[in-house]
Fold this sequence. Notes:
It holds the Pfam family TadE. This is TadE-like protein. Residues 13-53 form the TadE-like domain. It is a single chain. The chain is an alpha+beta fold. It has a domain at 35-112. It has 2 helices and 3 strands, in the order ααβββ. It has helices at residues 13-57, 62-69; strands spanning 75-80, 84-93, 103-112. It has a 3-stranded antiparallel β-sheet with strand order 1-2-3. The relative contact order is 0.16.
Amino acid sequence: MIRRRRPGGDAGHATAELAVAFPAVLLLLAAVVGGVYAAVAQVRCVDAAREAALAEARGEAGALVGASRAPEGARVRIDTTADTVTAVVTVEVRPWAEWLPGVPLRADATAAREDVGVR
């Protein structure tokens, strides 16, 4: 038995499906790129906090060291006690656009104070 196609059957379905799927794929790609951007910024915050705490523990300017390694717009805070130094780096990144909500990131590191006396 031979089947005949109905007039106007499946014509144009592929175009319609592509028109629906393409924006979804672009949105997914934007989400992935934004996630990678935020992850890289978090790693930079962790590195900046670690370097700031170590520098401050050695008696150097830890806030300056941390700010030089942190993402743009980050804030570096140094908290000290008698035995330790803690550096806290915070930043809000906006991976997609300035008018969209940002992603707040925070990293901290603690180092023991070093004796920097004359040897």
